[in-house]
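Attaching the record inline, Q. Sequence:
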Amino acid sequence: MDEPIPRTSAGDGPADDPIDRAYLARFTLGNAALEREVLELFAEQAPHYLERLREAQTRTDWQHAAHTIKGSAAAVGARRVAGLAQKAEQIDFTVKGARSLVHRDEAVAALAAGIEEARGFIARLYAGPCPKRPSGEEPQRQA
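Structure, as predicted:
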């Protein structure tokens, strides 16, 4: 089993980590339980939003899915994923033909790789025992 990834004294990890933990710590006001909750929620939900992007049949659906990925990735400090989603959001979905499909397929593939990298990092980060929540209850998650 992998060891949990420690923070440095500044609260961050190496610059090339898929999650900017220093940003996340500021965003969550240093609440480790909240950090874990939002990271696990991102890891759980990102593949669903990626599937919505993959299945988009209209420009609106494409842009909405890309925008959702961009926002959720940015919120947890997954900067590479957010950047890839921003690029995907700007693809002109209305252009017909093979070139447009290739651009969309490339965007989906790049996002899938970025999301899996972030999810793997999150899984390694919390490979150890879970800290108990103050209330002793699991968070309620919306679908």
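The chain has one domain: 21-125. Residues 21-125 form a domain with the Four Helix Bundle (Hemerythrin (Met), subunit A) fold (CATH 1.20.120.160).

More tomorrow.
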